[in-house]
Amino acid sequence: MRAVMKLKQRTYAQQKALWGFLYVLPWLLGFLFFFLIPLFYSLQYSFSSIKADSKGMTIEFIGFANFIEALTVNTNFNRTLVESIVNMVVNVPLIVIFSLFLAVLLNQKFVGRAIARSIFFLPVILASGVIASLEATSLVQAINEQNASGGFFSAGTIGMANMMIRSGLNEDIVMYLMDAVERIYQIVSQSGVQILIFLAGIQTISPQLYEASKIEGATGYEAFWKITFPMVSPLILVNVIYTIIDSFSRNNMTDLIKETGFTTFNFGLSSAMAWIYFLAIMVILFISTYFVSKRVFYQD
Amino acid sequence: MILTRLLSLESWKRWLWTIIRLVLIAGLSFVILYPIIQKMTTAIKDKSDLYSPIVVFIPEHFTLDNFKQAIVMMDYWETLLNTFVLSGTTTILTAVSCALAGYAFARLTFKGSNLLFAGVILTILVPPTTILIPIYMNLKDFTLMGLIPLLTGKSVNLLNSYWPFLLTSLTASSLKAGLYIYIFRQFFRGIPKEVEEAAYIDGAGVGSTFLRIMLPNALPAIVTVLLFSFVWQWNDSFFTTTYLTSSKVMSTQLASLPYNLSILLEGGVTTNKDPFFMSMVQDTGILLAILPLVILYLFVQRYFVESIERTGIVG
């Protein structure tokens, strides 16, 4: 009897594995044809000189020449790379903390909550892709902004900064916060998705947990750190990664790589640039994932 | 009694928090809405109002000319239809393929599935620019492992058609698809195993457990993925400008709007090119492009904004 049970169990597990493979199969095909093979080619291109004409392509291996050209000869590459990475490192913590804070805020009950939520998710729609890039060149907006920033606001922030420094706060932290205030539109418009992810995560936490903690006498502050924070911690990792990859679509590096590839048709150089960029990002990602994933808590 | 309650620290704290929250939310909402309000007022302004110092938000001379101009220039209705079909199809296909993959990675583990999931992470991490050129080449001479040349004699050029989008979304490797798989997997992992086990004990197979138990539980994830992939496909200029050069889709039309506008102004009725006027029509174009999304959003937001409590083990 026991032997039969065992046999059945194994076939059941096998059945599950088979289904699992079937479910993954579409993705696997896409992964092979639209990712792995192109990735391999891209690596090959980065080490070669490519001449494309009407007859086709000739690929010639030239070693690290493309990488050397990108790093030492090309005038824009180094500057753009450093710029986009610094931007990323500054923005990511700000965006993640800000969006978690707002998600908790938007999860509370208050008058007009539905409207507030709809407004905060609007940037998901508005601040992506072509619209954001066109917005940067809008002249009307530039004029209005100039009219609007009539001294008051900036004077206020500087006064605030002085006050904080005098009260003994570390100058670097103050500068960082001031920088955050100046970038508020950028941060708000880039954290729509993150707010949504956090909010969805918070809403899957069962209300019983909060009820029980309330009966035991926990304050809202404690409930946040002991319940909300651990429960959404997997999503903090998601959001850190998301914020980093989200910057791909809107930074100058992407434009530079694409321009090198499709307007000057220097495929080799373009691929080399893309690979350097990719490796730089990987380093950042590994460091941040290492630190965040230590604190992540899973259901199973 | 009432007085002590009024003066108690608790109620003061609560009031203070309410006020702070109100200020924060109102302020940030304004920051978000400001560009849109501004675009709307710009769109209904007459040209002369642009230079008038007394006009800030409410125009002095109301006009719909900007809209007419932008609609003609962008070929708005045809573009709208094209974009809608393209985004809708890719969204549904992407959601289906990603949900399947995400569920398999979360619960139907098999030998090597963790390794494959590392592959999913890799697709998220690698910037699309890195693999753009080889994919472009591949689509230009699409062979499907040498199958198509065998049948028809020559490779197919898939550029400038919707095929690249259909193929990538069907195989869960379209724009940011790795992210959707990740979202689905995280959600399915968060659903307690007991729910699933109960379904198996009641005699449901893998397919029906997934369809009838797990999918309804993952409704927030589904709505999220649907909305994201629709919106991003709608706004995407990275792939559309590469794959679709001549087809009329919203993002390409929007990207070429300044160019078309300057051509029209050079040879059209108004001979002097006014940068402010161009910017004005461009703003109107952006407004027109996001209008369908905003309308759609008004309908959809209820679903993901309303709290979706977890069913099953707690309910």
From TrEMBL, chain A:
Keywords: Cell membrane, Membrane, Sugar transport, Transmembrane, Transmembrane helix, Transport. It comes from the Bacteria. PROSITE patterns: ABC_TM1 (PS50928). GO terms for cellular component: plasma membrane. It is found in: Cell membrane. Its main location: membrane. It is a multi-pass membrane protein. Residues 81-296 form the ABC transmembrane type-1 domain. SUPFAM superfamilies: MetI-like. The chain crosses the membrane at residues 21-41, 85-107, 119-143, 223-245, 265-292. GO terms for biological process: transmembrane transport. PANTHER family: BINDING-PROTEIN-DEPENDENT TRANSPORT SYSTEMS INNER MEMBRANE COMPONENT (PTHR43227:SF3), BLL4140 PROTEIN (PTHR43227). Belongs to the binding-protein-dependent transport system permease family. This is ABC-type sugar transport system permease subunit. The lineage of its organism: Bacteria, Bacillati, Bacillota, Bacilli, Bacillales.
TrEMBL record, chain B:
One of its GO terms (biological process) is transmembrane transport. Belongs to the binding-protein-dependent transport system permease family. This is Multiple sugar transport system permease protein. GO terms for cellular component: plasma membrane. Residues 80-299 form the ABC transmembrane type-1 domain. It is found in: Cell membrane. It holds the Pfam family BPD_transp_1. It is a multi-pass membrane protein. The keyword DNA-binding does not apply. The keyword Transport applies.
